[in-house]
Amino acid sequence: MTDELDKSIPREESLVEKIAEKIHDHDSSSSSDTEHEKLESPSALKAKIYRLFGREKPVHKVLGGGLPADVFLWRDKKLSAAVLGVATAIWVLFELVEYHFLSLVCHILIFSLAALFLWSNAHSFMNKTPLKIPEIHIKEEHFLLIASALRNELNQAFVILRSIALGRDLKKFLMVVVGLWIISVVGNWFNFLTLLYICFVVLHTVPMLYEKHEDKVDPVAEKTLKELKKHYMVFDEKVLSKLPVASLKAKLG
């Protein structure tokens, strides 16, 4: 009797061990499945989606963040509408009414100074406290920051122009020539002020529309860029590689 009990106990222990191993294997497989699901989560898949110009940041950060990005993306609709309205009013005054910039500045200053002068005298005549006009001081560090940023951009532009002038990069040369030609054609259609206004309106509309429909725009842009790269490779193989500049570059390399 005792022998039968001793034999049954190891069998029960082995059965319990097998059940425990199966449960452990099931837990490990389920945990691996959950990890795989996490890796294939929508956020992970969204990160793999191609973004226009290879950007990795949101549109708001690409535009610099802060108040300017809020205005361009219409985060504050009243402020964005006010800025666009002021720009439109300036364009109408200068382009349609043919108002001159110097005259506008002088008239604004005359009206502002006359209003403040009369208001201050009216307060003193009525024995009221005079107007508190704040003192305006422009900090030197703000000018230095702007000058430093402008200097860096100009130096970068000079480096690119120098490399193009030395014949080191045929691709950049063609891009600059085509870009300048497009600007010259557009410049014949509009004057400088109208062109600035069009660029301003584009900045107020295109980023906002792109942010709303980026999931639809990016796949189309990806296909378009692939087609352009294919055409450029064909053009490079049949035309650019046969130019003397390209052969000289290959010999020097």
Tell me about this structure:
InterPro entries: Reticulon, Reticulon-like. It is found in: Endoplasmic reticulum membrane. This is Reticulon-like protein. It comes from Cardamine amara subsp. amara. The chain is about 80% helix and about 0% strand. It is an all-alpha fold and about 250 residues long. Helix 5 (about 75-95) packs antiparallel against helix 9 (about 190-210). The radius of gyration is 34 Å and the shape is elongated. The N and C termini lie far apart (about 95 Å). The model is unreliable at about 1-10 and about 25-45 (pLDDT under 50).
Can you describe this structure in just a few lines?
With 253 residues, the protein is mostly helical. The protein has helices spanning 2-39, 42-48, 59-62, 66-72, 77-96, 101-125, 140-165, 170-189, 192-212, 214-238, 244-252. It contains eleven helices and no strands.
